[in-house]
Amino acid sequence: MKIEAVDLFYLSMPEITDEADGSQDALLVRVSGGGLIGWGECEAAPLPSIAAFVCPKSHGVCRPVGESVLGQTLETPADIARISALVGYNSMDLLQAPHTLSGIEMALWDLLGKKRGEPVWRLLGYRQALRKTPYASLLFGETPDITLERARAARRDGFSAAKFGWGPVGRGEVAADADHFAAAREGLDWDAHLMVDVGQIFGEDIDAAAARLQPLDDAGALWFEEPFDAGAFEAYAALAARGAQVRVAGGEAAHNVHMAQHLIDYGGIGFVQIDCGRIGGIGPAKKVADMAVARGVTYVNHTFTSHLALSASMQPFAGLSESHICEYPAAPKQLAEQITANHIRLDGDGLIAAPDAPGLGMEIDPARLVPYLVETEIRVKGRVLYATPTL
Amino acid sequence: MKIEAVDLFYLSMPEITDEADGSQDALLVRVSGGGLIGWGECEAAPLPSIAAFVCPKSHGVCRPVGESVLGQTLETPADIARISALVGYNSMDLLQAPHTLSGIEMALWDLLGKKRGEPVWRLLGYRQALRKTPYASLLFGETPDITLERARAARRDGFSAAKFGWGPVGRGEVAADADHFAAAREGLDWDAHLMVDVGQIFGEDIDAAAARLQPLDDAGALWFEEPFDAGAFEAYAALAARGAQVRVAGGEAAHNVHMAQHLIDYGGIGFVQIDCGRIGGIGPAKKVADMAVARGVTYVNHTFTSHLALSASMQPFAGLSESHICEYPAAPKQLAEQITANHIRLDGDGLIAAPDAPGLGMEIDPARLVPYLVETEIRVKGRVLYATPTL
């Protein structure tokens, strides 16, 4: 089949807060070909991503993403890799391109899976979608009491793992952070996994990050996520070498395979966290999963948005028994909940699995999304390059 | 002073060709504060970069670049670093942010230099702007004869160094490439520097790149630029280890200091090429220049656009005697020529220097630019987020 159309939909909550909560808006991607529809989702910044799809060409290797996608043939997984390579080369100098491509690439897998009547994880070579332990991805409360209560709520909701992130942690005294870690552990109890995410708060300050290692070990934390700038490999490696029980985690900012590989090889992380909505989609994420296995590092998804993005993010490691933990957006904004008509829910054992259904296995109900649609128009030299399409 | 306004101007030639010629469009940046004006230029993709400046916030660390710049205080170089760090943290999840920031950051240096009555290179700590050997940055011809003629023309124009890039090289047989290298050398003669740029054509294919080493050595090439994907450090290191005379060069794609540092530390390059219009501006470029000196690697600018960008790109290594070669856009499109009213010309010895004048020392004549202005409008929810400002 040919890729006949790629439509981008900017969706948003009516109010965007200052929380580091990526579920507040979305760029939904609809790809049409051969009478079928595939859906995908870009992780971040809808407007620049739309602009990267439609912008006028700047020169030979700074072309809009659309030019390398529209009209292409899609019959096999190799076609998806070929289209991605075409975007990579033709949009070399367009920084936003990998984020824009990510949602499109997911939609191509969804479309191909629907055409073949196969789940994407099977197209990736896995024989089954193993059940994973979902962890509730939560924000630290403003006080340890709020953190404690959120941890308890996660247990009540059936989670046996939870990650706390952002909020006040890393901004004040070590003792204050330790209180939050302890509160999270108390709320979860000792039979659950606890992970901590500090969202690059320490920049490249190794000592500031290292001061949190003992409190994290005291709380039995499994990993310590993104202590530093995404590119500060030397800081990651120095922290990993401090000999704590807690492992360093990172990788969500990777927008190509090399960035993730280098965080493993030079940064010494123990968990590599990949966002399919940023790294260029499912194909590059699968490459990182293979690298992680080869290097004895654990692959984990990074997902803080809809269950469309969740399904996509589970495909690259669906069949990997080494990777049993899975990020699960436990308290997303209503928009993220509404993007899919069906959801990936915890089973009786509190586990989840990628859908055993064609493509990504998620249904989109346009009617639910109309209230969130952000009408957008981009005009260049009087020509409309983009206007919100009809859902 | 306060940063009162940041205006972005999308300029373009009437026709954009498929050449890898970055001088075909530009995003000019005007920053106003304290009754003064500073000018800068983003290297690539005007529309996504404008979108990154004005886009609605997606969440706490995915904010538009404008939010971290407008209204800030600017009194010292440290303020520029502070504003850049603010953009880095607040726009963490906005991939296009470093490209957008680059032009703004340059304009902040220009503005501060004008306020202080000092050239930017002096604000960076250099006591003088040393003269550099400009190399004509040219595209390979479709045939070796055209390449030969372009090389001869560069000598006639007074250049004692030239770099040839892109075109047919790397796309066919090694022998055909060797003919181009030899033609370039013949046209330049043996007393000139010859450099070769293949624009990532070999992906990660080390053997294909290595097959060009002997022809490059035969032609006495000084460097072999961007043989691989910007992130393929292992391929760079493997090629550098093959023991050729020609050194490997790269770095133009770096959009932060870490990327450049890692290409040096893990990729083993001999020349690090920094584009101030991509890496976040002049401040980060200066950091890379300092790293290069410390590691015995030669810093070079990457500039293929206007003399505003050229002046900005010369500042970070203006006083470094180790770095005597300087990229000079020898055959830019008319637009790039028109962006500045004054130009950095070769002196009687065929050398150039960063202007000894306040700020970047370049004058912008708005009247010359009006014919190139690309009228652009971005509307979100009926509100105009961007409309081309008055020049």
UniProtKB/TrEMBL annotation, chains A, B:
Residue ranges of domain Mandelate racemase/muconate lactonizing enzyme C-terminal in the record: 144-246
GO molecular function: catalytic activity
Domain of life, source organism: Bacteria
Annotated SUPFAM superfamilies: Enolase C-terminal domain-like (SSF51604), Enolase N-terminal domain-like (SSF54826)
UniProt name for this protein: Mandelate racemase/muconate lactonizing protein
